[in-house]
Hints:
Blueprint: H1 6-22, H2 44-61, H3 68-80, H4 97-108, H5 115-124, H6 130-138, H7 142-148
Amino acid sequence: MMDRPWAMNLGSIGMIMAHEMTHALDIQGSLYDFKGDLRNWWSESARKTFTDKSQCFVNQYNSYRFPEQNMTALKAYQKQRSAQFERLPGKMDQFDEEQLFFISFANMWCSNNLPNAVKKTLSSGAHPPESVRVDGSLANFDKFSDAFHCKPGSKMFRQPEERCILW
C-alpha cells in the first residue's frame, strides 16, 4: 500500500480503522468503560440524543450503519495530503486526490453477492449489503457530493436538509 497515493490508503485502510474506532462510541460501545468493563457510561441525555439522531439513518437505510467513520478517515487524509499530488497512470489520471479517496473507499466494498446472500445480510441486521454501505453512506456526505459535483436528481445526491448527521 506504500506505493499508492496517500488518499487511496486512507480511503480504504483508514476507513476500516475509523469504522472500528467508532464502535467505542456507538450503542454497544456505550455499555463498556475505558477498561472494557461492563458499565454504561452514557448519560440518559446522551443516549436519547444518539438514538434520536440515529433514527434518521434507520429511516433512510432501514437499520444500516452510519457514515461517521467516513468523515474520520477523510479528516485524517486532509491533514496528510501532499501539496504536490501524484497522478495515477492511465484512465485514473482524471481523478483528483479527494475523488481517489472515495473511489478507494468504494472499491474496498466491491462484491458480487447472490440474492440469497443479500437477503441473509439484511435479515441479520449486522451490516447492510456492500452496495448500500457505499451508496447509502456517501449520499449523506457533503464532501463526496462536492468532490464528484453531484447534482440534485442524481442517485448519489441527497438534499442537505435530508442528510443524516450523527456527530
